[in-house]
Design a protein that fits this description.
The chain is α+β, with helices and mostly antiparallel strands and 319 residues long. The protein has two domains: 191 residues, Probable tRNA modification gtpase trme, domain 1 (Gyrase A, domain 2); 80 residues, Aminomethyltransferase beta-barrel domains (Elongation Factor Tu (Ef-tu), domain 3). It contains seven helices and 17 strands. The strands form three sheets. It has a six-stranded mixed sheet. The protein has a six-stranded antiparallel β-barrel with strand order 12-15-14-13-16-17. A five-stranded antiparallel sheet has the order 3-4-5-2-6. The mean pLDDT is 96.
């Protein structure tokens, strides 16, 4: 591991790190029927959210496959969806086909806004120093607008959504308040250790929401696209594979799409692999069969003709 990357990593783990999340974008919804319409489109309960709150959810096909997963934030007069840019076109195309006569306006505002991540144990202190006031939000995906910027409680710490023309100024201010700028590679290590799946990397058109776990799914809300498939998995059947972590025994990183073997038989595949400084070992994310999804299960990963020893672990990784 390069010393500079280790410096970045240590900043995120012991102090505060700052990342420009250019790979994420935003969709904004307005119109009087925005919440009731989106309620029928996604896996989580939008109608129970109050302004300043948010949730994790996904939009599915009728067959229960993930079109896109997202974070939904609620304002008094709008809804915001934060998701990978790689998924935005497909999601908007799917929504366009399902939007008939409802009073709902949808727009991709990714080019207008920049998402900055502030990560680490001192991330809140950095934001409060920058704002000059207390950040009085703590629940996951809760958020508030301050001086035209939106501060959001995220999976890795906080996000600050800023208009692009102000991004450089805010970046400098956050750095001056104690955050160390990091690169995408370091961010990817942090999100992997946190067990965060990424669309186009870990999630594709074959993935179902229950394979990722119960987060982002409400089993009490009314109908939504793909709901019957999700409910059937919950109450009648089971998933055949689960999203899981792997800790490698050696020093080799497995290639993406490497086959995971249990007792010599195909038991899944790798979607992400990185070296974890926190564990001082290579780690990976991937999908494993239901029978292999037991923490501590020893498996093998076949990568470039090598057989790498590994063990299944729950997510997030315990550092």
């Amino acid at each position: 591991m390069k010393s500079m990357l280790l410096e970045y990593y240590n900043a995120a783990r012991t102090h505060a790190a700052l990342a420009e999340e250019d790979w994420f974008g935003l969709i904004k919804f307005t119109g009087s029927e925005r919440a009731s319409w989106l309620q029928g489109m996604v896996t989580n309960d939008v109608l129970k959210l109050k302004p300043g709150e948010g949730c994790y959810a996904a939009h599915l096909t009728a067959q229960g496959k993930i079109v896109a997963h997202m974070h939904i934030l609620v304002d008094e007069d709008s809804l915001w969806l934060s998701l990978e840019r790689a998924a935005i076109h497909g999601l908007i195309s799917a929504f366009d086909k399902l939007l008939i006569m409802e009073d709902v306006q949808m727009s991709d505002v990714s080019e207008q806004w920049q998402i900055l991540a502030v990560i680490g144990p001192e991330s809140r202190a950095v934001i409060e120093s920058w704002l000059g006031e207390t950040v009085d939000i703590s629940l996951a995906y809760s958020h508030r607008v301050v001086d035209g910027c939106r501060v959001v409680v995220s999976d890795l710490g906080y996000e600050v959504w800023v208009l692009r023309e102000l991004a450089d100024k805010i970046l400098r201010a956050l750095a001056a308040s104690g955050a160390t700028a990091i690169d995408h590679g370091t961010w990817d290590v942090l999100r992997t250790e946190a067990g965060m799946p990424i669309h186009g990397v870990d999630i594709d058109s074959t993935t179902t929401m229950p394979e990722l776990g119960d987060a982002g799914i409400s089993y009490d809300k009314g109908c939504y696209v793909g709901q019957e498939v999700v409910a059937k998995v919950k109450y009648i059947g089971h998933v055949n594979r689960r999203f899981a972590g792997l800790i490698l025994s050696g020093r080799d990183l497995p290639d993406i799409e490497s086959v995971i073997l249990k007792d010599g038989k195909d038991a899944g595949y790798v979607t992400t692999s990185v070296f974890s400084p926190g564990l001082n070992k290579p780690i990976a994310l991937g999908f494993v069969s239901r029978t292999a999804y037991v923490p501590g299960t020893e498996v093998e990963v076949r990568s470039e003709g090598k057989i790498l020893k590994a063990a299944i672990t729950e997510l997030p990784f315990k550092l």
